[in-house]
Design brief:
This protein has 386 residues and is an alpha+beta fold. Among the domains are: 90 residues, OB fold (Dihydrolipoamide Acetyltransferase, E2P), CATH 2.40.50; 75 residues. It is built from six helices and 16 strands. The longest helix has 31 residues.
């Protein structure tokens, strides 16, 4: 097995089933590369296809330098060897998760003499190359920073401000970090953060020149590694999912206007038990086949800008109110029936039934019907009680 570097020449065949120049199927994720050994030796340039080495995939961008491994292919049999090239990932030449281009660098760096001429103002202009583009759709940004790591963290980052942090709380001074952690807790208390759109800006690895000479100058002298880190602060990140553990405090601001989260609820900054927090501008829970279940050991709070709802208090109050209304409804029906048959003594003898008896009887019937519906609703609410 041999390891070397290569330049990515094309990624067009990486994103759908494709074939090589000889008509053979290419493994998904394959990119066209030019081996560094063939670019610096003065011989013919060797271009090949390389496929991903691992089962996770990050397709490199055009112009990036990648590590490739030369190893056995699927056609290897006893006494018959098939060689394939596998890529690991792009070299972070500029210390940038977003983009690390060095297109055509080996055209310039074929020995110290040419490299020196390329960056010398007295050197003749080298042949121009096409305007650099990292791909068909990818657009370079100049302000994408790396996520701030802390001791012991495992970070998985994308190219455009998305990341997974598998970290833990720290005790003691954090002055060695560019950005202090926004979560606090006991040493080594685990925390998992999935963030999308974390903030922070700074110098990027911009490449906006079109000649080898100007590119060499940029590559060798003007490309600067990032000078700071971004941070997945929940108040500034577009959307974030946090899984905390025992003893950790999460200090973040809730939606504007919602300073309280129901009655007898500790604010986030004081709650020190494991919790899950999902924060974004809009949240949709969509169950494609079965129920959405909200289950709590104590209570469920629903808070909006205008209302602060405690489910326990709300349903208990509604149930008490309905029982009182049903009780009064029974008394009303009884009174209406009495009025419909009531006879009063008069000088001429007992009176007959009131002339409006029909109305009293109709009212009593309507009252009974309403009570029946209310009793049914009361039983439904009562059945919801845990």
């Amino acid at each position: 097995m041999a390891i070397e570097t290569a330049t990515v020449i094309s990624t067009k065949k990486a994103f759908k089933p494709s074939k090589s120049l000889t008509g053979l199927p290419l493994p998904l994720g394959s990119v066209k590369i030019r081996l560094s050994s063939s670019q610096t030796g003065g011989g013919p340039r060797i271009e090949r296809f390389a496929q991903p080495l691992f089962n996770y995939l990050q397709v490199p961008l055009k112009g990036e330098q990648i590590v490739v491994v030369k190893a056995a292919g699927p056609g290897t049999l006893p006494g018959l060897s098939e060689v394939k090239y596998y890529y690991i990932g792009a070299l972070q030449i500029h210390g940038n998760n977003h983009l690390n281009p060095m297109p055509g660098i080996y055209d310039v760096l074929k020995g110290g003499g040419e490299a020196a001429r390329a960056i010398s103002s007295a050197a003749p202009a080298l042949p121009p190359i096409a305007q650099y583009s990292p791909g068909e759709n990818f657009v370079e940004k100049k302000d994408v920073l790396k996520l701030q790591p802390y001791e012991g963290d495992i970070l998985i980052e994308g190219r455009n401000r998305s990341a997974i942090r598998l970290g833990s709380s720290l005790e003691g001074s954090t002055s060695q970090y560019a950005q202090s952690p926004w979560f606090k807790g006991k040493q080594n208390s685990p925390i998992t953060v999935i963030s999308n759109g974390f903030k922070g800006g700074g110098p990027g690895a911009a490449l906006d020149k079109s000649s080898v000479k100007s590119f060499a100058k940029s590559a060798l002298s003007k490309f600067k590694s990032q000078q700071s880190y971004a941070i997945d602060d929940p108040d500034k990140t577009d959307s974030i999912f946090i899984l905390s553990s025992d003893s950790q405090k999460i200090d973040m601001t809730l939606s504007k206007g919602n300073k309280k989260i129901g009655k007898k609820v500790l604010p986030l900054s004081r709650y020190v038990k494991p919790q899950g927090i999902l924060s974004a501008d809009r949240i949709i829970l969509n169950s494609k086949k079965d129920e959405i279940l909200l289950v709590a050991n104590t209570d469920v709070k629903i808070v909006t800008k205008g209302w602060n709802s405690d489910m326990e208090e709300f349903f208990d109050t509604i149930l008490d109110f309905m029982e009182e209304v049903i009780k009064q409804n029974k008394e009303l029906e009884k009174g209406l029936k009495t009025n419909a048959t009531e006879i009063h003594p008069t000088p001429a003898g007992p009176s007959g039934p009131p002339t409006s008896a029909g109305k009293y009887i109709a009212g009593a019937s309507k009252t009974s019907s309403i009570r029946s519906k209310m009793t049914k609703l009361k039983n439904v609410i009562k059945g919801m009680k845990g």
